[in-house]
Amino acid sequence: MSGHNKWSTIKRKKGAIDAKRSKAFSKIIKEMTVAVKEGGPDPDSNPRLRLAISNAKGVNMPKENISRAISKASDKDAAALSEVTYEGYVPGGVALFIEATTDNIQRTVSNVRSIFNKYNGSLGTNGSLAFIFDRKGIFTVPQGNLVEDDFVMEIIDAGAEDVVLEDGFFTITTAMEDFGTMMKKLEKNKIEPENAELQRIPKTTTKLDKETAQKILRIVEMFEEDDDVTNVFHNLELTDELMAEMSM
Questions:
Q1: In angstroms, rounded to a whole number, what is the distance separating the alpha carbons of residues 112 and 88?
Q2: Which CATH number is correct for 82-131+204-246, 1.10.472.10, 3.30.70.980, 1.10.3720.10, 3.40.630.10?
Q3: What ranges do the domains of the chain cover?
Q4: 140-144-148 Cα angle (round to 5)
Q5: Is 218 exposed, middle or buried (0-12, 13-18, 19+ CB in 10 A)?
Q6: pTM confidence score
Q7: For the chain, what percentages of helix, strand and coil (3-state, to nearest 5) are there?
Q8: Which CATH superfamily is domain 3-74 in?
Q9: How many Å separate Cα 19 from the centre of its chain?
Q10: Whole-angstrom Cα distance, residue 214 to residue 48?
Q11: Per-residue pLDDT tens over the stretch 216-228
């Protein structure tokens, strides 16, 4: 399996665990709020909201929760949310790229800096890790009745860089600029992805011994548990042993 698909597969498996917690709902509600503020409450004319609703369905968010989130976001008195990113290093030379959505930037940067400091990491300047990560579109599609060879050929013809089938799910990778085109292709074919998002995929990875790698993953989890943090991307090499532990 190619490196970026290994990373994306772990994100999907881990996402299946995260979906059992309220954190998954909170993340999607924030995304819907930002989407409504940007493009209005009608998903037919707001692609970002349409995508957020699709992802909400992928984690089995009840329809009433979705409707309530859109209605609340439409209220002119709804809290203003900002999307921010942070970059830095943790022990072992592992790079972290953190995405957050917050109504209080001072609180968020304070929390992020505190975690870096606690675990002997260092918060860097924005843009300092641009050379380490590529931004890619990642789609997770249940196989269902889709015929593997036919589907793979059609999706590659539509501009996918890579398609992998594992554990009953297709992981589709596209260039960032082709994300919208692929979304339209799936919609046209009446295929609803379980999840679709832009991810930051490491160009190269850092390999560490098992014990150190496990410590790094625990640090990643500390960031992920912060209510403002929506995504944490890293360039730790995910060995088969680590993958097996993460998917348990």
A1: 10
A2: 3.30.70.980
A3: 3-74, 82-131+204-246, 133-202
A4: 75
A5: exposed
A6: 0.85
A7: 45, 25, 30
A8: Integrase, N-terminal zinc-binding domain (1.10.10.200)
A9: 13
A10: 35
A11: 999 999 999 999 9
Dihedral angle of Cα 239, 204, 160, 41, to the nearest 10 degrees: 90
pLDDT in tens, 37-96: 999 999 999 999 999 999 999 888 999 999 999 999 988 777 789 999 999 999 999 999
Element (H, E) at 65: helix 63-74
Q: What is the DSSP letter of 178?
A: G
Residue 16 has pLDDT above 70, yes or no: no
CATH superfamily of 133-202: YebC, transcriptional regulation domain (3.30.70.980)
Angstrom distance (rounded) from CA 112 to CA 23: 17
More confident residue, 207 or 22: 207
**At a CB cut-off of 8 Å and minimum separation 6, what does 146 contact?**
170, 191
The span from the CA of 147 to the CA of 154, in Å, is 11
Cβ atoms within 10 Å, residue 153: 12
Q: Is the dihedral of CA 34, 158, 11, 56 positive or negative?
A: positive
